[in-house]
Prior knowledge:
single chain; 247 residues; alpha/beta; Rossmann fold; 2 domains; 7-stranded parallel beta sheet; 8 helices; 43% helix; 16% strand
Amino acid sequence: MRESHGRCAIVTGGGSGIGQAYALRLAADGHRVVVADLADAGETVAAIREAGGSGIAISCDVSSGASVAALREQVERELGNCAVLVSNAGIYPYALLEETSWEQWRAIMSVNLDALFHLCKEFLPGMRRARWGRIIAMASNTFHSGLPGLTPYVASKGGVIGFVRSLAGEIGGDGITINAIAPGLTRTPGTSTGSPNEAFEHVVAGQAIARVETPEDLVGAMAFLASDDAGFVTGQTLVVDGGHERG
Length: 247
């Protein structure tokens, strides 16, 4: 992969977990990283700077168009155009569909899918002006087979895949690509709290690579999709789940 040329990269939900791993890798590759999160992202930014990279934290509610617009304004004012946009923030509350309220459904869709709309609407114009851009969204390997108790989550991730596939055709002529990464169950602070060890054991039993997935397993795919080398890859969903069986 080629140098980042000091491009500006934004990672939503970069305060911990997968987003933190993405932010650290982008900074290590030479990007000027914006960690956009409602939670405190100080740990991520401190780690970036300790390693000699460039990083700042900006509070943002990705489910709010106004908040994403404010993020774009601050980024362009302080760092210029965003070149790499990683839409990573997501939520995954467990509930049977009949026990899920409309408000809960909308909350999941707002963070997992509507956010991608807001982010692309705000940052695509700058990428078009530069005639270069990389957009990376987070899907899930559950779109293959579904997952009882997580129907709204799986639906939102299916929406991400369709969004990516369709938007690619609108922006490819301007040197902009959009792709998704679909991980399996990944051990992060959030999933470690919300998922029992039995869940991880069940998933690992169905993988070709029989160990628990970690955020570090995803950073290589993200770094490739963010690079010049991925300039002819767009509209794709790259499944990174250790070869989990389908069905």
